[in-house]
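hey team, just a heads up i'm posting the complex here instead of the shared drive bc the drive is being weird again. everything in one block, sequence lines first with there labels, then the predicted structure for the whole assembly after. its two chains so it's a bit long, scroll down
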Amino acid sequence: MLEHFGKYLIFLGSLVTRIESPRILFNRTIDEAILIGINSIFIVGIVSTFIGAVTCVQVSYNLTNALIPRSTIGFMVREMTILELAPTITSIVLAGKVGSNIASGLGTMQITEQVDALEVMGINSENYLVLPKIIAALFVFPMLVILAMFLSIAGGYIAGTLTNALTAQEYITGIRDAFVPYNILFALIKSVVFAFLISSISSFKGYNTSGGALEVGAASTAAVTNSVIAVLIADYVCAQLLL
Amino acid sequence: MIEIHNIHKTFGDKKVLDGVSGVFETGKTNLLLGASGTGKSVLLKCIVGLVKPDIGSVTFDGTYFTNNKLDIRQEIRRKIGMLFQGSALFDSMNVQQNVEFPLKMLTPDMTKSDRMDRVNFCLKRVGLEGSNKKMPSELSGGMKKRVGIARAIAPNCTYLFCDEPNSGLDPLTAIKIDELIKEITVEYNITTIVVTHDMNSVIEIGDRIMFLYQGKKLWEGTRDDIMDSDVKELNEFIFANRLMRDAKKVEEEEEQAENNNKQ
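-- predicted structure starts here --
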């Protein structure tokens, strides 16, 4: 365990040595941002809309006390979405989609000697292949989390009004009630931390693959499970430190 | 010229290379010959710096490579072209982008049109003109090897390394790839090292041959001397290779006869 962590730290260190030209790094980062970001919009959209809708329906189901105003449903959807569901659930979904993609891509490159081909050319393969993925994730994850926040709240609105759990006016009053802007910042900080963990752990697992197709699959699975565990631990640490 | 001196390499408790030394001359096709698992590919990787030898050194044209400063190692590496066993073409790039890639990375001052000229020249040189837009998945094994060679020679390499260039190819394509390697070596006067276990390659292109057995260099010489060697392991290897070739030939003849009967 400790040995793996040490190797992970050495791997992170190697990303910032022998850096390729800024132009190449920029172009690669844009390519990776498209792969990570644009290709994830659909899944993030679907998941976050339904999470917002389900949250609204379940809060409504539990709020049976007539003394509590119905607008509280909107308030709770907003709080749960912004503080936890949008950043954490989105990141866990992305750990599955992006993490496995990164690990299997790098793993395949490793076993087919494409990484060796880069090294023979005198190119720092870690820097060329991995650093753009991490930088792209750091920029793209917060954007996806913001999208998830909007869509979750919209999902709650649609579910709430369609099921007559509350009126549109009540929902809007609820989501505007006692708004703390810091919570948005907190969610974005968390998303950056999660982005780093998912992209770097998945890259580490993929880059250190050796063997054949079976090992690529194993690396991909390990990347997802380790990333999810790291996200959940980081979620707790962030909550303790920042709230 | 590449010189290796007393290369040792151990993986776990398995000694893969045991004090290999030798000289690989410029303008000649130098073969590393031996059966599977004798350490040929590991030696090649030690030479190009993909694997670090436990003991020993590699010198490129008088410049010390192993354990030298990173800048110097990088400088030498930029003169190296390598054809990998599985070709190692970048899956996400088409043929043109694969060949252009080292030019983009290693010669950033080169203009786009100069790069394209060079790419087209290299593809023409390996007989693949017009295949620019094909993806690696659309290429046959032989074509992949050709693209690999084009990519290796694109940045005007001084040293060319080929790891089993014939593996997985039919005999005719294998001969063509061998001939291409030989022609390029002479044409550009580069130092070429080819890892092989194929005696056909020895006959076709081997100017200098180094025979490895269980991680040790047992014999070194020219193609003409190899049949006169008194090294038992080498003679066994040649004999086994000949038997395999004869068996394959008989098999092919039987197959041919069967096909003729069917027709």
